[in-house]
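Hi team, as promised in this morning's meeting, here are the two structures we talked about. I've kept the exact order from the run log so nobody has to guess. The first one is mostly here for context; it's the second one we should focus on when we meet again. Sequence first, then the predicted structure tokens.
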Amino acid sequence: MNPASPLNPGTHSRLILVVEDEPTVLEFLREILQDEGLATEGFERADQAWEYLQERAADVALLLTDISMPGTLNGASLSNLCGERWPLLPIVIMSGFETPESSGVRYPVSFIRKPWTIGQVLDCVQGALKSAQG
């Protein structure tokens, strides 16, 4: 169990929502985070993640999403929807091509440029979780 205090009380308060359209990268990210004691839920499309969030947002401690992906929503539009509806939810965005600014993200997010290292992902996620705890 991760010694850091949970973001919110409850058993699923450390859940990280991972949204990445490349299946091998999605599984790798989930494995990295689970090795740190964090629970994860993964989606290959932002549309699926948005549906999940509408039902289970209270369980989610952080959104980690790629920008570019197929479907109605991309990571930037998912981030904007989350920023509007859940302004306290920390968001980490990844991309090798765009930045949050160039993709139209309107809310504060953390950014990881691809290709990333495991250390960069863990540092960014842990930093976002800690700053959200205030």
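And here is the second protein, the one for discussion:
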Amino acid sequence: MDALDREILAQLQSDGRLTLTELAERVGLSVSPCHRRLRALEQEGIIIGYRAQLDPAKVGLAFEALVFVTMDKTSAEMVAAFEAAVAAVPHVIRAERLFGSPDYLLRVIAADLAAYQQLWDTHLATLPGVQRVASTIVMKSIVHDRGLPLQG
């Protein structure tokens, strides 16, 4: 990956709706070489998708919590069962396995506290292999969906 590829990626992170012509113009290439580079970045799995970013509050999902999960057992089977169960909960918008304690960090979104409590009771508290679940409410999001820092 060279500087032009990084610039293509930076431009797309900034505005994923750019047309190929606009992208080529911004990075100083003609359309054909820009298109070849873009397709190569997609085929290599560097670009993994395109999507719209939504304002959670404006779609009725203004409540956000960070959920810390400590596992009772960490056998391969239990970890797989837990991770499959977490992946099946649509309100978990990010899930990460951690080194140390806790074992997992989940970012969970809901309409409000009552909806989160219901989600907690029906899904989070019943996840397989869990010893302890603790959560904290997000007061304010400071950095949200920032693109990757692509400068050397």
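Starting points for discussion:
The domain at 3-43 is CATH 1.10.10.10 (Arc Repressor Mutant, subunit A).
The first helix runs from residue 3 to 14.
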